[in-house]
Amino acid sequence: MASIPQASAAQFLTQLKYCKSLPTLPAVALQLIELAEDSTATLDEFAQRVSFDPALVGKLLRTANSSFYGFRRKVASLSEAIGLMGLNATISLSLSFSLRGLTSGQGGALDDTDYWSRSLLTALAARTIATELRERQPEDFLLAGLLQDIGVLAMASMLGDAYIALYKQGAGHAALLKQEVQSYGFDHAQAGAQLLKYWRLPERFHECVLRSHAATQAGGEGGAGIVQLSACVAAAAHIADAWIQGATDASFNAAYRSVRHYLGISPGQYQNIIAKMRDEMPEMEALFESELLDPGILQGIQDSARELLALNNLRLSRASAEASVQIQALEQRIATLETQTRRDALTGLYNRTYLQHQLELEFDKAMREQSPLCLAYIDVDRFKSINDTFGHATGDQVLVTVAQRILSAARPTDTVARYGGEEFIVLLPDTGLADARAVLEGMLSRVRDKPCLAGANADSHVTFSAGIAALVPGAASFGNPAALLEAADDALYRTKSNGRGQITVHEPDAQ
Q1: Average of per-residue pLDDT values in the chain
Q2: Would you state the pLDDT for residue 306?
Q3: Across-strand partners of 374?
Q4: Which residues neighbour 91 within 8 Å (Cβ) at sequence distance 6 or greater?
Q5: The sheet that has 464-471: what strands, in order across it?
Q6: Rounded to the nearest 10 degrees, what angle do helices 87-99 and 54-64 cross at?
Q7: Where does the record place the GGDEF domain (predicted)?
Q8: Highest mean pLDDT among 89-103, 325-339, 416-430
Q9: Cβ contacts of 34 within 8 Å, gap of 6 or more
Q10: Per DSSP, what are the bridge partners of residue 428?
Q11: Beta pairing class for 373-380 and 464-471
């Protein structure tokens, strides 16, 4: 791909204003922006301008009567809708509906499911966050969510097929921003902010486009309104990605860590946001005439929600024998599914597949947030002799006991998994070496201090050897999750060489 020299980045941003193929807002939308700048403009003037676009009038009336507002009586006229929703909300919604008709100017090359699904999901998430946090103008958040990636359309208009090919590589949003800077000297956040300046949108929107694309920009200095708007849109983008990635527990959990970083919301608030998005998604699709998710994914989520609701309802009527049978069947189904997909069949700990997935998530989070991450590799000492002496059934009993004791000493934020055979892995996020070692010492003490074999073998004690490796910003770094795991394995090997029953910390220079 041909690159534009860094020196021409400023020239490109200037040329945005004169690009004939650049996305432009409809005349009605531009007139609304002009009226919004006029402090003497009346509600009737706004209603008159909007009335020139019958399709826009229809969307505003449908929105006023939708679940977004839930007015007790049907809204029948445009003036009534503006009066009930408010002037600012009307302008933001009108601009939002106008944006949906924009293309990249390249034959609609980016006017497709990938671009608009993410933009509309971000917009819905931003509005839902705003309502959950009781922000005064949730429509501003919806509009800001739609505008976040408007620079993609601008860059596609100016740069054509080369940029479109880069965009469609699908390496992830953060990777796209880096690739844009490497290839062109600027990214679509800068391009989008400049475009919004040319459109004469209020400062809070083009500032939001810049700030919401990076953790260092979502907060920082500036007016409280801009900071909050940017943080909400940044969080909304992570929620949108979680939906696009299949709306799995893992994707939503990963998104929550970012949302918590930006907004500090509770798990309960986060669950409310996801549930409300699920309920309002069909309305959003109808209003913007777009399919936000594969229907199968959304149906599956809705079915799961109905199933959980049915389970809760059944629990209220346990006196009924029929209800009890259904409860047991549903609970067994859930337990079986979890066991098959995430749990080790013998010990009940997380399995290797889940561990590897969680390790990648925690590693990426630690790198992104510059927070510490420790990994402990545990191996039960002389386990082969236990199997040879007492048999494999007794060996399995030992593994179960050891697993339970390790888990009992773990913290709620730790991930404990059986890695294979007599090997266990413990992930300790946001944890430095000293604290990690203290947690492992507690685990070793619980395993060592009581016999692990029952009956005639009651005096049989078991120990484990462990190695700890730490990803510590500015002190110890690893190129990928596999390297961190290998470092812990090396430390474990040294423990075994030094007599077992101990804990060794990985030292980068020790081989």
Answers
A1: 80
A2: 46
A3: 428, 470
A4: 32, 33, 36, 46
A5: 415-420, 423-429, 373-380, 464-471, 503-505
A6: 120
A7: 371-508
A8: 416-430
A9: 200
A10: 374
A11: antiparallel
Rounded distance between C-alpha atoms, residue 290 and residue 288, angstroms: 5
The tokens for 412 are 């709620």
Place of tokens 């006029």: 38
Q: What is the pTM of this model?
A: 0.55
3-state secondary structure of 428: strand
CA angle 475, 477, 482 (to 5 degrees): 150
Kindly state the DSSP code that residue 462 receives in the 8-state scheme.
-
The β-bridge partners of 465 are 379
Do residues 261 and 368 lie in contact, with contact meaning Cβ atoms separated by under 8 Å? no
d(Cα 145, Cα 141) in Å, to the nearest integer? 6
- Our CA angle for 438, 440, 444, nearest 5°, is 120
322-341: pLDDT as tens digits:
555 665 665 566 556 555 66
Distance of CA 9 to CAs 45, 149, 166, 198, 484, Å?
40, 18, 17, 17, 39
Best CA proximity match to 101, nearest among 37, 177, 28: 28
From the list 46, 51, 13, 48, the residue with the least C-alpha distance to 32 is 46
Give the Cα separation of 193 and 150 in Å (integer): 8
The whole-angstrom separation of Cα 205 and Cα 463 is 60
β-pair type (503-505, 464-471): parallel
Task: Specify whether domain 6-24+102-293 bears CATH 1.20.1250.20.
Answer: no
On the CB side of 416, CA atoms within 13 Å amount to 18
End-to-end CA distance of the chain: 42
Residue with tokens 């739609």: 146
Q: How many residues are given for the chain?
A: 511
DSSP string, 322-349: HHHHHHHHHHHHHHHHHHHHHB-TTT-S
Tell me the two tokens of residue 426.
Answer: 């413990």
Exposure pattern of 311-326 as b/e (b: 16+ CB <10 Å)?
A: eeebeeeeeeeeeeee
